[in-house]
Each structure stands twice: as C-alpha cells, then as structure tokens.
Amino acid sequence: MLTLLANAKINLYLEIIGNRPDGFHELVMIMQSVALADRITLTPLKSPTIQLLCDHPQVPTDHTNLAYRAVALLQKRFPEQTNGVGGVEIAIDKKIPVGAGLAGGSSNAAATLFGLNVLWNLGLTRAELQALGAELGSDVPFCLAGGCAIATGRGEEINPLPHSPQLYAVLAKYNSLSVSTPWAYKTYRQQFESTYLPLNDSANLAERQARVHSGAMVKALGSGDLSAIGDQLSNDLEKVVLPAYPKVNQLKQTMLSVSASQGASQSASQGASQSASQGASQGALGTMMSGSGPTVFTLTETLEQAQAIAHTVAAQVGDRNDLQLQVAPFTTKGIVLQP
Ligand code: C5P
Fold it and tell me: Where would I find the GHMP kinase N-terminal domain in this sequence (predicted)?
C-alpha cells in the first residue's frame, strides 16, 4: 500500500497565444504548486481490476476519472511488467475543490502514475512519467514536477523556475459553481481568434515564449520582488469567465477590496514613518483567477495576512455557506510520497 499527497496548482500567469495543429491552444503559463492536497492511497489487488473509491459527489469513479485512466495507460504501455501483478484500488480523499482551475484531477493522475511506478517497479524516469502524463491531460506533467515552472505548448512542456518566494494563497471557490475548461477555451477562441498568431508561425511563437521567460513575472519571482509578483499576475481566461460568471467577478472584487483595506490598516498600524513600499508589502500582493476558474486567489506574504483576508472575505460574502475558503502556502513539491 502506498499513500501520496497530490498538491493543487495555481496559475500566476496564463497567456493564450494561438491555435495548435492538434486543436488545442498554444499557451505560456507560470504555474505554482500550493500545499492543498488530495490524499491518494494505492492498494494492490489480486484480481486485475481498477477500483476507484471517492466519496465526493462530483468525482467520477469510472474510466472517465483521470487517475483511473492513468492506471489503464500504464497497463497498456507496459503489458510485460503489469500482466500478472494484479490490479489496484485507488482511494481519493478529496480536499482540492473539483472543477476549480486548481488541477485537482490532474494531480490525482500524477500521483497515480508516480505511485504505480514505485509499486510496480516500472523504473520510469520523471521525464518518462511526464510524457505519459501529457497523454492524460495538459496539466499532469506540471503536477509531477511541482514547484514553480513556466509551462508552454499545450501546457505540458515544463521549464522549472528555481526561485519562488514563500507566499500564501487564499483560495476562494463557490461550491455550486464549476467552469468547463473546454468551454472556457472555446469561448476565448470565439472572441479572440483574430488576435491569435497564425498556425505554425514558429518564429513569432518562440519570440512570445521568450518574452515571458525574460519577462517581469519571472524577474519578480527570481528577485523576490513581492509587490511586482502581485502586479504581474495575469490570466487571459478571466476575459471570458468573469463576464459569464458574475458571481465570480463579484467575488474577485470583494477579495480585491478586502485586500486593499487589509493593506491600508496594516500599514497604518506600522506607523506613518514607514516608506510606502514597505507599507505595500505588508498587505495582499494581488488577486487573480486560477486556470479556467472559477477559483479566485489572493497572494499574501504571511500566513496571518492570508487568514485575516479569508476571515474578512467570509464575513462580506452573501452566501457564505456556498463559499469554500482555504489558505495554502506555496510549496516546491507536486507529489509527496508519504512514509
Ligand atoms: O488537457 P486538458 O484535458 O486539461 O484540456 C481540457 C480542454 O481544455 C481541452 O479539451 C481543450 O478544449 C482545452 N485546452 C486547450 N488548449 C490547451 C489546454 C486545454 O484548448 N492548451
């Protein structure tokens, strides 16, 4: 039996560049793992079956679940090693909100690939696991890598960024809302296709990717310039998701206004003698939607600030019972094997 923690991710940056020949979108993203994890327990079964257990009503337990498909993919690709080893039970203790833009399903698949590589002695390298993961979903390779990374292509090509400061994310999601990722990209294409790079324009594509590699967010992460990290948060999918989901837009506005007042009261309590930039660094750093949403996150420098913001947002939001609010620190790990 093997237990793994599968961490969620947030997008610090998501830029849509154009169409791809495979029908997906060419992206440049900056992804960050946060320590909000599903617990995945893999138990070998004598019979060659795949059994998935999860008591979350929105999580399918059949072949449509990405973790289930991860097992099937390994069995298909490595028949010699997997024939005769029996099957596996995958128990998912769900903590990451579902349909949230936090890569919950992808991280479960990543943990399953990682764990079965150990349980079945497949001897696959991280790169080999990531290549298999890319067949399951665009976010799976990042979930295997963890930490902070630039993701290009469909999102499956991962360039790790060695430095990201220890920040905290307040994550807010309405339980009753989830956004379909295919819908978000399709709607973006309908509205913005005229701005896309032409297909196979590899020179301009490389230039757009290079712009992010040497851009302001990567510099801010590298130098630990926290207010610049907040200023550089960006997500093209907000342009279609926020107008279509007014509640999410309203939630983002609430988080922005709570952040602003939190920052103001904190810098006031520091005394008037502090410089403006020091004062700014005491407050929330920025607020953005993650992935295709509808989770909205606010970044802070300290756990106390994050908890205070979560508390105030909870008090200000009308349907508090529908809102899931969690505080998650940045982490360098995607998948964590439990002792
Ligand atoms: O790869 P994943 O299964 O997460 O993608 C879900 C959907 O999101 C795809 O079927 C596609 O409609 C859209 N998508 C896209 N371009 C990407 C990633 C996802 O259009 N780079």
Answer: 65-147
Residues 206 and 300 in one domain: yes
pLDDT greater than 90 at residue 250: yes
- Is 9 a residue of the active site? yes
Relative orientation angle of helices 104-119 and 66-77, to the nearest 10 degrees: 40
Q: Is the CB of 23 under 6 A from ligand 1?
A: no
Of the listed 38, 139, 236, 252, which one is catalytic? 139
- Cβ–ligand 1 distance for 141 under 6 Å, the answer no
CA of 322 relative to ligand 1 center, distance in Å: 27
25 lines ligand 1 (CB under 6 A): yes
Consult the annotation and say whether 101 binds a ligand: yes
CATH number (domain holding residue 206): 3.30.70.890
pLDDT in tens, 5-18: 999 999 999 999 99
Number of domains in the chain: 2
**For the CA atoms of the chain, what is the radius of gyration?**
20
User: How many alpha carbons fall within 13 Å on the CB side of residue 71?
Assistant: 26
Whether 229 is covered by a domain: the verdict is: no
**Ligand 1 lined by 258 (C-beta under 6 Å):** no
Question: What DSSP element (H or E) covers 39?
Answer: strand 25-45
In tens, the pLDDT along 61-111 reads 999 999 999 999 999 999 999 999 999 999 999 999 999 999 999 999 999
What CATH number is associated with residue 41?
3.30.230.10
Cβ-contact 142, 290 below 8 angstroms: no
Is 99 one of the annotated binding-site residues?
Answer: yes
Residue 108, in any domain of the structure: yes
pTM of the model: 0.94
Whether residue 274 has pLDDT greater than 70: no
Q: Is residue 222 part of a domain?
A: no
Q: What CA–CA distances, in Å, run from 146 to 7, 111, 294?
A: 8, 11, 22
Q: Is 104 annotated as a binding residue?
A: yes
Per-residue pLDDT tens for 276-319? 333 333 479 999 999 999 999 999 999 999 999 999 999 999 78
Range of the domain at 64: 2-161+333-337
Query: What is the pLDDT at residue 319?
Result: 82
